[in-house]
Amino acid sequence: MGKQELTDSNNVYYRSYLKKAGIRFDYSIVDTTVKRGLGLSFYVAVLIFAACSLWEHKSELLATLQWPLLILSLLYILCYIARYAFFISLRRKLRATQDPILAEAYAVVLLDSDRPWPLPAYLRPRLKRAVIYKECGTLKPRFFLGVASRRAIPGFVPHQLVQVFTDKRRPKFYSVDDESAVKALPAGKALLRAINLKQSLGSGAEMRSPGAKKVKTDDF
Does the keyword Transmembrane helix apply (predicted)? Predict the structure, then answer.
């Protein structure tokens, strides 16, 4: 496949190829964790804990397994809840920031791992995917990722404006608000950033991706 740019009609890419093109971003751990909620592994741990608590047995071998399983499952449940509560609190704290970053929807990225061989076709539908957003109004934009999921992304809108709330001390922690978009931004600041974006695009600052590889959207 030839070298392609990310355009409105060609906006599905593998992460590995975007990385080769110089487009790098951190995984959206805050939004993805909060959106996912209590996952399957949490409920499996709860079932194991409940089963061990009610376990009636006569075998000495089973008796030796009961307490280790009980303790391990309880520790897993407590750590899972603590981690989930931490990211909920962090997300709320980030979104209370008064100076969010304005970004625009750039493409849909398939989160494959870096590998020297092509990904088998049967694995493509199982890849997690997310919308990647590009910071507006700067010659050196940063890129941010939306919620990652294995489900299809319906109604991708290129250049949709969103707000990104970042942790100044820990840049890998951020939250993308794609619901309120720019409505919460002061009108003057939004207008100023829109002007800066127009100027940067006019000066040829649009990020190119010479090494990015096109993905056939009809495969998904």
Answer: yes
